[in-house]
Amino acid sequence: MNQDMKSLDRNYLPTNATLVNHQYSIGVHFEGKVGDININGMNYSLKQLHWHAPAEHRAHGRL
After folding, report:
1. Which of 3, 4, 32, 45 is a plausible cystine mate for 36, CB 3.0–4.6 Å?
2. Strands, DSSP E only, in 1-63?
């Protein structure tokens, strides 16, 4: 556990979204303001979600 971490504040809002298949990735497009998260005083707005394959990173030596 990182003792330097302060609060983790979430502020997500309900909104409509569309799931999109781009053949190489899957994404979520939001229709309105979704909200944000605040980590150690830095604010990050949620703009989109996406997943793709193959992975960019390895976990336990596997893609």
Report:
1. 45
2. 8-12, 17-21, 25-30, 35-39, 42-45, 48-52
